[in-house]
Specification:
This is BnaA10g30540D protein. It comes from Brassica napus. Residues 1-33 form the Hsps-like putative alpha-crystallin-like domain. The chain is mainly beta. It has one domain (15-63). It has no helices and 4 strands. Strands 1-2-3-4 form a 4-stranded antiparallel sheet, with no helix packed on it. A hairpin with a 2-residue loop joins strand 2 (25-35) and strand 3 (38-50).
C-alpha cells in the first residue's frame, strides 16, 4: 500500500460502486491516475469499508 495524491473532488470520469462483499458494505471508487497533469492508462482503486467490520469504531470508514 502506498500514499497517492488524489483530486479534492471525485472526477466526472471516475467509476463509483457500492456493494456488499460478504464481510460488509463497500464503497469502491476507480479514479483515473494522473501524473504531472497527464492521464495514464492505469486507474487508482479506492475502497472504503466501515471500521466496525474490521475492529474499529462504528461509523468510521477505512481506506484500503
Amino acid at each position: 500500500m502506498r500514499e497517492i495524491q488524489l483530486p479534492n473532488r471525485i472526477p466526472e470520469e471516475a467509476n463509483i460502486e457500492a456493494y456488499f462483499d460478504g464481510t460488509g458494505p463497500v464503497l469502491e471508487i476507480m479514479v483515473p491516475k494522473l501524473r504531472g497533469g497527464v492521464e495514464e492508462e492505469h486507474e487508482v482503486r479506492v475502497c472504503l469499508r466501515p471500521q466496525h467490520h474490521l475492529g474499529g469504531g462504528a461509523g468510521e470508514l477505512k481506506l484500503t
